Structure prediction request, 135 residues.
Amino acid sequence: MLLLPARLEAFALRAPAEALLAAPGTVAIEPARVSYGALGGLPAPVARSIARRQAKRMRLPGVPRAIAVFDPLQLPLAGALIQRHAEAELWDLGGAYARADFALDLTGTTDLRPAWERMEGLGVASGRLGSERIG
Prediction:
């Protein structure tokens, strides 16, 4: 699951995000009407409370194995989602969070192979390394 900091069409990292979204089972979650920036200006307990409500309302097409953020302001929502889906990893794809389970700064690389390999390691077909042919 990619938590996008902006609508995909306006996202500065649109090309690598679209490449990741091409993997089977990968979904993008665009920001809510209340921006991450607006939530970032709230006291941390309030932001976490709002994030927990947002996470509870989300209807996902499955159980997330990884929740990727691009910006530190996305961490309250990512944390709330991980509380609901404890088996999911936190991925940092924008230099947002040093304590993520997996980090790949897409602002500084075009090589997505580490992300594909990590997906495969989680049992998620990347669509890039041959796993889609394993049966």
